[in-house]
Amino acid sequence: MSTWNFDEMTSRRGSGCYKWDVDPYDDVLPMWVADMDFKTAPEITQSVIDRAAQGIFGYTKVSDAFYDAITNWYSRRYGSHVEKNWILYTSGVVPALSAIIKALTSPLDEVVVLTPVYNCFFSSIRNNDCNPVEVPLMRHGDSYEIDFEAFERAVARDRAKLFLLCNPHNPAGRAWSKAELRKLGEACRRHSVTVVSDEIHSGIIMPGNTFTPYINVGSDLAANSVTTSSSSKSFNTAGLQVSYIFSPREGFRKAIDRALNINEVCDVNPFGVEALVTAYNKCEPWLDDLCRYIYGNYELLKSFVDKELPELSVLRLEATYLAWIDIRRTGMSSSLMSKKLLDNGLRLSPGNIYGNAGEGYMRINLATQRSRVEEGLRRLKKALKG
């Protein structure tokens, strides 16, 4: 039995919450943006309260406790070796990605991505005057595989400089294996392309699956990589604005540090630092229980769709709390399906925003109370059958 009550209803509408307050109508159920409806772990809340009690909120000097929490987390949870002097901090993973791209590319360079992929990858690439090169993932049964031949051709292009890896993959729900990661890394090394691993969803791993940090593929390949992550997705603290970057290569770190300062994203929120340290040091049991609860939501979604909506199919979820639904048999585009669902009081994310390979799919956020998942499924059925 769970120690924490993830079924406890929370009320977020009218609180300045982007997920719940974007829609002007109170009857819309938002199951789209990657933001959980659960209260964070009690220890995190208490750490923020204790920091707030000081009553002074000036500039933050990041303490050794921050670096130690990260290195110990990677060591304890994943068996990874990360050194303190490898780590840089910034306000979020998207600013981190933008700074990394600015640091390691020149205008008109190309950045390779496996699509469908997190939509902000595209904006970070284009905002730095680079061009994305999409390598579509291959559907295999109820999941995806990498087209390694197409990937090799992409990283071999003259202007390809970076491979932006989503690890685990949003929205495909894959937890990449070590063998897959090594094969990607070897192709990048052959063509002098740097691997940038976004590992923000690494804490949300479904039962029976394993997360492999890119740093674990071997020192030979890890030396040609940069990783960025945060505790924010795993512990629902995105609004506290803190993330980190690490790389074994000093030259990468110096260039990225300069880009962070050029973009003025080198200061962080004091509450974010406290939350990360507490999350990584004290809240691992809470996270493991959360993953089991989310997997229960996924099983509910899969069972309901299989029984009630055979024109849809739900792909296997190995990681993240974002399930991927194939709607192609309905004959509707992702945009049209999104509108139809919204007309019936349900907001999901249309697949076409995740690249060309996302057309014909929808993304649903399962990090909410089970009763809300049940209501979302009722609205989904009404939209398709009504």
Compile the SSE list and pairings.
Blueprint: H1 18-21, E1 29-30, H2 42-52, H3 64-78, E2 87-90, H4 93-104, E3 110-115, H5 120-127, E4 131-136, E5 138-140, E6 143-145, H6 148-155, E7 160-166, H7 178-190, E8 194-198, H8 219-222, E9 225-229, H9 232-235, E10 243-246, H10 250-262, H11 270-282, H12 284-308, E11 313-314, E12 322-326, H13 334-343, E13 346-347, E14 349-350, E15 361-365, H14 370-385
Parallel strand pairs: 1-13, 3-4, 3-7, 7-8, 8-9
Antiparallel strand pairs: 2-10, 5-6, 9-10, 11-12, 12-15, 14-15
What does this structure look like?
Helix 4 (93-104) runs parallel beside helix 5 (120-127) and helix 6 runs parallel beside helix 7 (178-190). The chain has 386 residues and is an alpha/beta fold. The mean pLDDT is 97. It has a 7-stranded mixed beta sheet with strand order 2-10-9-8-7-3-4, sandwiched between helices. It has a 4-stranded antiparallel beta sheet with strand order 11-12-15-14. It contains 14 helices and 15 strands.
Beta fraction? 15-25%
Q: What radius of gyration results from the CA coordinates?
A: 20 Å
Shape: globular
**Low-pLDDT segments:** none
Structural class: alpha/beta
Number of strands: 15
Distance between the termini: 38 Å
Mean pLDDT: 97
**Major beta sheet, specifics?**
7 strands, mixed
Tell me the series of helices and strands, N- to C-terminal. Answer: HEHHEHEHEEEHEHEHEHEHHHEEHEEEH
Tally of helical runs: 14
The side-by-side strand order for the widest beta sheet comes to: 2-10-9-8-7-3-4
The proportion of residues forming helix, as a percent range, comes to: 40-55%
